[in-house]
Design a protein that fits this description.
heterodimer, A: 313 residues, 7-stranded parallel β-sheet, 5-stranded parallel β-sheet, 9 helices, B: 249 residues, alpha/beta, two-stranded antiparallel ribbon, 6 helices, globular
């Protein structure tokens, strides 16, 4: 038995969810190999070779893989998959995009966003926005699995010394090409791997008011997120969205500000270790799951919180 | 160009689901069902393409039990031209849905297929990508903008760090994200009109596809409940507790 983990990376570095996926692979058992398919991705390849628990890194360098186009990556992974019992990828926008193509081409089911490994063929995955947990068993010859990063600890990024093997790939499938990316400029930690997240909801009333949260975030070293209502209202871009249809986070501390606590938002953050809710509506459902609730006007409380944190520094 | 949209019947997004006592699944009896919200966005996008003169016909396809006709009627009431139901009582998993859709597409030959990026019941996020792979087509998943150009499609996609725009050869499969559009409501006259629009009913056998599930569901459980509900009186108390009790800051 051996497991192939397809790394999510930006050629320069691994995306953190790749480390959680390695942990899931180790839990399944057998040799863990990591595929780094990219263009000029030597740095990401070296990073993968240092991850504890990785036995081998497969490095494929081709312009076709530089932007992670699903059509190209899937064809490559299908070619490599035959030697493996499991193919894993993080359930990031990269993994979600290409992995079902791999499963379909191998004629196997995909098991999406597992949150636990029961055995080599049995896994737990959340359904209905995390309001139910399904335990599913696969009899397919190759198990194709996407991994929910919040379900697994990150593998240690240093200390390993895996062999790197350079392999060739089929190159471009000729179906798609990358035109441009407009990535949010953000000095703060990445939402899905931040230790602390502070999110705003419809109660923030405008995008401008998010600077109140940003001030607190900077004092705490936190990432800033938002509810779908805040995204739908146009306050902040969609990549801020925490929830069933956005990002799934499980930081040590999650601070929900002006968020009522719709099911679809809770789905994205209810596994956080400590939850704080700040909302003027005492009856808001978010308080039912919050470890610490503070009822009141956020426009008064958030500046107070900011000042209190500044005082204690 | 024909546009084919896939529409799934799911438990309405406002319903708080209940896990069955025997842990075999989720209670669906006497529960309000609706069209998967991402599929509504797909229907809307197809209708806008037709209204802009880029598409000639919009076909709504659903797969599953006989009641999925209601979901197709919703799409027809929004403005789709006709419907196809692949009718079966077998539990359909994404790979089977992709194979069945491929068989329908081989017959209908649409230039574009639009699906929701995920269904809010099983949260799989697979079918569109699987379908594109089986067809050997390009895919534009999690789309927030779609532009038809002279030589293909330009699709802007919601990705983890922001937005990404790709160029696709057609025919292509698109899966919708939330900000692609805001779906219209069906007007009463259009709901009446929809009753007369045709729905073809096909069996999986007739499409030459074995729809049997691949994954075995061993059990479905409720997640552990969080113990919440504690309140603090002031910002000072909150910061104190976070520092000294929870020790997270």
């Amino acid at each position: 038995m051996s497991v192939l983990v397809v790394a999510d990376h930006d050629n320069a570095a691994l995306k953190s969810a790749t480390l959680n996926t390695v942990t899931a692979a180790v839990a399944i058992g057998g040799d863990v190999h990591v595929l780094v398919a990219g263009h000029n991705a030597a740095a990401a390849t070296q990073a993968a070779a240092k991850v504890a628990g990785v036995a081998k890194v497969l490095h494929v360098d081709d312009e076709a893989y530089g932007h992670g186009l699903a059509e190209n990556v899937a064809a490559l992974v299908v070619k490599l998959a035959e030697g493996y019992s499991h193919v894993l990828a993080p359930a990031t926008s990269f993994g979600k995009n290409f992995l079902p193509r791999v499963a379909a081409l191998l004629d196997v089911a995909q098991i999406s966003e597992i949150s636990a490994v029961v055995s080599a063929d049995t896994f737990v995955r959340p359904i209905y926005a995390g309001n139910a947990l399904a335990t599913v068993q696969s009899a397919d010859r190759i198990k194709v699995i996407s991994v929910r990063a919040t379900g697994f600890a990150a593998a240690v990024a240093e200390g390993g010394s895996a062999a790197v093997e350079t392999v060739g790939g089929p190159g471009s499938a000729g179906l798609s090409s990358f035109l441009r990316a407009e990535l949010s400029k953000n000095e703060r930690p990445e939402l899905t791997s931040a230790r602390i997240v502070i999110s705003g909801g419809r109660g923030m009333q405008s995008g401008d008011n998010f600077h109140l949260l940003e001030a607190v975030a900077d004092k705490l070293g936190a990432a800033v997120g938002a509810s779908r209502a805040a995204v739908d209202a146009g306050f902040v871009p969609n990549d801020y969205q925490v929830g069933q249809t956005g990002k799934i986070v499980a930081p040590e501390l999650y601070i929900a500000v002006g968020i009522s606590g719709a099911i679809q938002h809770l789905a994205g953050m209810k596994d956080s270790k400590v939850i704080v809710a700040i909302n003027k509506d005492e009856e808001a459902p978010i308080f039912q799951i919050a470890d610490y609730g503070l009822v009141g006007d956020l426009f008064k409380l958030i500046p107070e919180l900011d000042a209190e944190l500044a005082k204690r520094k | 160009m024909k546009v084919l949209v896939a529409v799934k019947r799911v438990i309405d997004y406002n319903v708080k689901i209940r896990v069955k006592a025997d842990r075999t699944g989720v209670e669906t009896a006497n529960v309000k069902m609706s069209m998967n919200p991402f599929d509504e966005i797909g229907v809307e996008e197809a209708l806008r393409l037709r209204e802009a003169g880029k598409a000639t016909e919009v076909i709504a396809v659903s797969l599953g039990a006989q009641q999925c006709q209601e979901t197709i009627r919703t799409a027809l009431a929004m403005g789709a031209d006709r419907g196809i139901l692949v009718q079966t009582d077998v539990e359909l998993q994404p790979l089977a849905v992709a194979k069945l859709l491929k068989a329908v597409i081989d017959k209908e030959q649409p230039g574009l297929v639009i699906l929701g990026k995920q269904a809010i019941d099983d949260d799989s996020n697979q079918t569109g990508q699987m379908l594109a792979a089986l067809l050997g087509w390009s895919q534009g998943t999690f789309a927030s903008k779609l532009a038809i150009t002279d030589d293909g499609l330009e699709v802007t996609r919601e990705v983890d760090g922001g937005l990404e725009t790709v160029k696709l050869k057609t025919p292509a499969v698109i899966t919708t994200d939330l900000r692609l559009n805001e779906p219209r409501y069906a007007s009463l006259p259009n709901i009446m009109k929809a009753k007369k629009k045709p729905i073809d009913v096909i069996a999986p056998d007739a499409l030459g596809v074995d729809p049997a599930p691949r994954l075995k569901v061993l059990k479905v459980e409720e997640p552990a409940k969080r113990q919440g509900g504690k309140k603090v009186a002031s910002v000072q108390e909150l910061v104190d507790k976070l520092q000294n009790e929870a020790r997270v800051i």
